Amino acid sequence: MNPSGPLRKEHRLIEKLLTLIYHETLLMKKQKRVNPVFIDTAVDFIKIYADRTHHGKEEQILFETLKERKLKEEDRLMMEELIKDHVTARQITEQLFEYKNKYVLGDHDYLQRIVEKMDELGSIYPAHIWKEENSFFPAALTYLNESEQQDMIGQFWDFDKNMIHIKYTQVITRLKETSQADTGEYGY
Ligand SMILES: [Fe+2]
Ligand SMILES: [Fe+2]
Q1: Residues lying with their CB under 5 A of ligand 2, a single-atom ion
Q2: Could you give the domains of the chain?
Q3: Are the C-beta atoms of residues 124 and 85 closer than 8 Å to each other?
Q4: Minimum-distance ligand to the CA of 60?
Q5: Rounded distance, CA 56 to CA 140, Å?
Q6: I need a surface site. Which of 66, 103, 139, 177 has the fewest CB within 10 A?
């Protein structure tokens, strides 16, 4: 296995989310109402899995390693474009979450904006995944020898190991913020 293997596998799960988002958006358009729980869960998936875990490995391990190599101009430009896509996806996700909150507070005019953000996610990710799998990953591997590739897979596993702890530390923070009890007295 080369380092693109785990990343491609993660893409397959992200695509499942995109299919769910596609069908949920069709339903939202038809029923003219939003399912906030769906959006909360989708945003959580994107933030923790697609962004921190998946983009995290790409940016902090793969791209970071490649920045130390002498890349061909076309490969360097492609890497910059991929980083910009990650930033755009992050912004769309934040906006989606913000608009969903406004909708929940009673401003139903946000339905259209929520639909637009869902559609944007559904269009940016497939194109991004296609660029990585068909163009960037094959090019990236040419800059890494066999032992560097195996070392990178090890770094990916180490990176993933921390994610469950990061995720559930966030859950505790969120519970603390939303709890109606006085959590201070329990030493938090
Ligand atoms: Fe990416
Ligand atoms: Fe990716």
Answers
A1: 132
A2: 4-179 (1.20.120.520)
A3: yes
A4: 1
A5: 17
A6: 177
